[in-house]
Each structure stands twice: as C-alpha cells, then as structure tokens.
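Figure 2 data, in text form.
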Amino acid sequence: MTQETFPQLLVQHAAKQGERAALREKEYGIWQTLTWSQLAVLVEHLACGLHQAGLVRGDHMVVVGANRPRLYATMLAAQSLGAIPIPLYQDAAAPECVFPINNAQVRFAFAEDQEQVDKLLEARAQCPQLQSIYYDDPRGLRKYDEPGLGSIDDLVAAGQAYAGQHPEFFRAEVGQGRAADVAAMFFTSGTTGTPKGVVHTHSSLIDRATAGAEFDHLTEREEVLAYMPPAWIGQNIFSYAQWLACGYVVNCPESAATVMIDLKEIGPTYYFAPPRVFESLLTTVMIRMEDASALKRAMFHRFMDVARRVGPQLRDGKSVGLFDRIAYAIGNLLVYGPLRNSLGFSRVRVAYTAGEAIGPDLFTFYRAIGINLKQLYGSTETAVFVCMQPDHEVRADTVGVPCRGVEIEVAANGEILVRSPGLLKEYYKNPEATAEVKTADGWYHTGDAGFLDAHGHLKIIDRAKDVGQLANGAMFAPKYIENKLKFFPHIKEAVAMGDRRDKVCALINIDFDAVGNWAERRNLPYAGYTDLAAKPEVYELIRECVEKVNADLAADERLAGSQIHRFMVLHKELDADDGELTRTNKVRRGFIADKYGVLMDALYGGKTEQFIETQVKFEDGRTGSVSATLKIVDTRTYAPVKAAA
C-alpha cells in the first residue's frame, strides 16, 4: 500500500514500529501510553463503528475538544472512511459552532466532555441535521437522554464486533484513499467577517509536513507536547500531520492548568507556540525574579546582559571573545541552564513560533539563553510551512527562507504572493472568496506586506490591509508597534490606532498577574482588574513602557513618525468571547475601533478622561456590564535619530 493519506501512514507505522509509543496522555497524574499498534486497532474499531452509524465517504465530521488520543483517533477513523474531520475551537461558544456545522452540513460530531456536549446540543437547535454526537469523557453525562447522543466506548464496542465479522473492511477502506482526497477542513478565525472553511487535501498537508520535517531533520525520536487547540492549523500540522509523517511521539497534557508541569516532565525536543505563549512564559520568569533575593536578582540581570550581548552569536555558531565565552559558560551554569530547565526547555532541539509577529526583544531573549527558537511563516491556507529560518541564519526581523517547493513574489503594492504544493484546494462553498486569493496559475495572495532582503530572507512588515499612513504621509504599521509594547511583561495586549490621523494613540491591557505582583510588592491595594488598571501608579508604570517604545521607534527612519502620543489603560481585558479577539487571540482591529469609538473620539479630541460602560460575556454564558472613567495620558515623543553616514 502506498502512503498517500494519513490513515495509510498510520498503517505503515503500526507495521514498522508497532510497539513504540505513538501517543501519551496524562490521566490522574500518570502518563498513559498508546503504541502505534494499539492506535491502529482503536482507529479500526472507531472507523467500523462510524461506518455502521452511517458516516460515508465525503461526509464532514466535527471534532471539538482538547488534544486527546481519542480525538486524534476519531479524525483518523473519519479519514479512513473518506470522510472529512473539521476541528472546532473548544472555547468557542455554541453560536460560533452553528455556522461551520450548517455550512458543511455536518451530521456527526465528536465531543470531548460534558461542556462540549452541552455546546453541541445547544447548537443543534439551529442545526437539525446534526444527528449523532459521541463523547469521550462520560463524567456528568450519565443522566443525559438526548437522541443521537452516545459514548465513544459504545461506538468502539460496536466497531469491534463489526471488525470481527468483516476483517478486511478497514484495510479496504484505507486502501481506497488517494493523495488528492480532501483530508480536513479548517475554519479561519474570522478577523473581518464570517469564517471561511479552508479545504486541504492529504497531499497538501503531508507535503508541507514532510518539507518541514526535512528542513529540521526531524525523526521518529522527537517528543512533542500538544497543548494548543487542534482547530488551529499550527497545532494540527505539528501534532497531527508531522506526527504521522515522521512517526514521533505526541504527548497530551492532563489539562490547561498542568501544561507547565507536563512540559517539564516530558522535556520536548520539538516545540511550537505562538508569541503569546512565549510572552506569558517570560512574564512568569520576570515575576519570579521580582520575588527573588537581591543577590539572585543582581546575578540574573548581570548574566542576562552577557546573554543578550553574545548568546545569539554563540547560538548561530559565530565566534566571540574568550572572556565573553567564559562569562557565558558561567552564566549557563548559574542562570541560563536552570532557567531552561524551569521552563521545560532543557531538551528542546528546535522551537518555532508563528501565528503572528513576535517582538524582536522577546525573540532575542530566548535565543540568548540557549534555546534554538526560530520563526516560520505561513497560514491556514498555505498549510503553515512557507518560510523557515535555517540554523545559524536566524534574524529577529525576518521569517526565514522559502522551504522546499515554495515560490515567492512581491506584488507592486508590496503584497506577498506564494505558490506552493501546500496551498488550499478551495474555500468551501465560496468560489468568489477562492478566486480573490488564488489565481488561475496557482499564486496565493497572502494579504501580508513584506519583501525579500539581500540574503533571500522574507521580512514581514504587517498585514497589507493594516499598513497605513498618518495624515502627514508617514508609514503606520500597527502590529509592529503593538509587538514592541507587548514585550514589556506588564502589558498583555495593545491596540495602536493612527491610520489617516495626525498621531498614533493606543489602548492598552495590563497583564493582571504581572501588574498585580508589582502592586503587591509596593503595598498598593486593589479590588480587581478594573480598580488596578485605574491606579495612577499603574498609569505611570505603563507610561514608562510606552516612552521606551517611542525611543526605539525614533531610531527607525520609516517608523519614527509613528510614536505613541496618547494612551489609555482599558477597564477590561480584551476577550474572544466579547468579539474583541479571534479564537487564535488576534486583535479584531475594526471591531474594536467601532466598539470603543467613544474612546477613540476622546483620545483624538484632546480629552483627559472618558466614561465608558461595556457589555461583557461571562464563561457560563451570562452577560453583564463593567463601567469606568478612564484617564487619558500624554506621552513623551522623541526627535528621529538620524543614521550615521
């Protein structure tokens, strides 16, 4: 059998390395292992059960939950029958599930637990064709009596009986699969409107997974921790597509709350996370250092100065002076090594960040302490791998070189065009949207603005639609400014505004944990997020951060005019449930501009404060409101620093 599809790769691994671990799951504090042979049997029984239940080739099946062996097995079982899994975000509200389920005419669904079952049952009121929902975790579901609701255990048992009567059925179904068959569908995050279903074939996903594996010499010996949502193609490509392409081990944490503990226990060799995770980890480090003794703080800052100066050079194999090499070795013994171990990165051979731009200071921090953190560039539509950074050619301001099979062109307006074997087949039931982004000769319009530098590395400036101009014609790149702000551990989120206006202003979210720790160390009392965010001392802390960003911007000839003149600290955290962020935590800039229009008017109208009342949605689905009078602060700006001749 040729290995053209994911189920065919599974069968190959079961034959070649059947007794090796394929998946691990932490349950009740103990890691449970599923071998490739055991996984193949589970997938066979699930496929037979789904076949009996009526799932047929070409059907769509929703899977919603965290990374779990049975979720992966269900996706493989659906693909074995020629059906198409659609992973949905487990933190999405029920109304957000309605469009994908109806758009794809979904009849079957996998739900991890009671929370996801409740969500799908609520959505089913608007999705009458959703006939069967299978759950993994039975806790809380014993007394549920809903038509079409059943456990995965019962499905497996029925499939096992069917497989016993029809031993050739599974192999025959898997053998029918072809590379050009649709493998999965991923719904975009919908930053500008209704989500679109991105259709990928086995060929597009396996080709890109293999290209990425070849680039970094991945083998079946890698260990990966899968903790991001499976609905995000970044997690899916690393812990599903590349997992099956390479045959390495994927580890599923017990819960979101135990990820840091599980990370240290597993010690992954191959790691992937969006910038927000690396920001959070750094914030945790800085909070802990504030609580450390004066001696430890002094040692940390002294050796971090050494790391920032020579660490990236050593990581890239460049020569440094003997004294600096000795100083770094001592720092590695006393600071960097223990810090990597504390973060769970002691065994990491390759780490990637993607999904959005990462701040250069944040990026440099991790490379400085000896972690081989690199950037890659791609999207849902390109099956992730477009550009990757080769070892020893890593720069904070680029995203690497085109990987195997990729061609890149830069349009006259600065937009990046990509041609690759990993491009989407289409947007599902949306030929107009497909034609907008994919040309007849195979070029995909990324929507990103950038250019290839003299070394062939791609540099991303911003989303093409977001790059604008100030009223005086100066370039305005909001994401670049926001990333600089978010490097500071006290700032969790930022939204920069200024397109076609006379100056740049910003809305800022404080990091509640980091600022709360800072306040407690200064005996500054507070009653909650809204109260803490309004403290004059906190405003002064954030003003210092903003002015440091302005000083950096002044040294950039193109962006010196984009310094922040005024800002306010929001009274609530930006939240995906409130529509302000996507499920991948990207800022929905247009939505925020409309929702907080009164704040925009106050910032640009010269006011010193503004009252606002905002509706919020709680985790249990209830709504409420939070109100505050927000202070507006003017900041210092700097004259542009002219480059030396």
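Caption note: The longest strand covers residues 444-452.
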